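RECORD TYPE: inverse folding
INPUT: structure tokens
STRUCTURE:
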């Protein structure tokens, strides 16, 4: 039975001096640190058997994927299933104490954290991410694939695969910038999940 690995890579740090929730908004690029992170991950994966690279259509994911694809002589395939989660607060500051969450007009959007009521349902995120992973697995059968996505989609999928409830405390996600969550398959069956942070000592 063939062994296939699908690596889920969270994009690198984003240039966001206004500290807004950028979500699916276009034009948010990697910062200088984020570009270094992408290069470091590419170097880390230099000797991996990667034969397929896919990325969310958002610029920061495409930029993160580019040096890895180049290292392996591949093109980046854009996969809409890897996109960031939709969120009604895009374009606004949403840190604790910031305007969006203090505004009473926003409170109805916060009524159900288990769905969540402010954005794309967790179940929908898990389903589309799982479909993207299996597309990558089929393309890379017997080898390795890399999929560049975003923190919430990657973490939601991991919780789904671990058979845990999908709603969670965002402060407890194990999905740092430029981290790898690697899904190991025997045939089409998931047999292991491995997490690592390739840039933690270098950036």
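DESIGNED SEQUENCE:
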């Amino acid at each position: 039975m063939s062994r296939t690995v699908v690596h889920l890579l969270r994009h690198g740090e984003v240039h966001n001096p206004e500290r807004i929730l950028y979500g699916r908004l276009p034009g948010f690029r990697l910062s200088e640190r984020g570009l270094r992170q992408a290069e470091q991950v590419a170097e880390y994966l230099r000797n991996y058997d990667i034969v397929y690279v896919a990325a969310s259509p958002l610029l920061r994911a495409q930029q993160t994927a580019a040096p890895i694809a180049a290292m392996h002589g591949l093109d980046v395939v854009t996969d809409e299933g890897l996109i960031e989660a939709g969120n009604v607060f895009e374009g606004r500051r949403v840190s604790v104490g910031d305007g969006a969450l203090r505004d009473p007009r926003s409170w109805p959007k916060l009524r159900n954290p288990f769905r969540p009521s402010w954005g794309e349902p967790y179940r929908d995120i898990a389903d589309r991410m799982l479909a993207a992973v299996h597309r990558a697995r089929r393309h890379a059968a017997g080898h390795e694939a890399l999929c560049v996505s975003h923190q919430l989609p990657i973490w939601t999928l991991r919780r789904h695969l671990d058979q845990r409830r999908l709603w969670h405390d965002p402060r407890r996600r194990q999905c740092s910038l430029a981290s790898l969550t690697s899904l190991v398959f025997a045939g089409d069956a998931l047999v292991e999940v491995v997490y690592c942070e390739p840039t933690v000592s270098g950036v």
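NOTES: The chain has one domain: 3-196.
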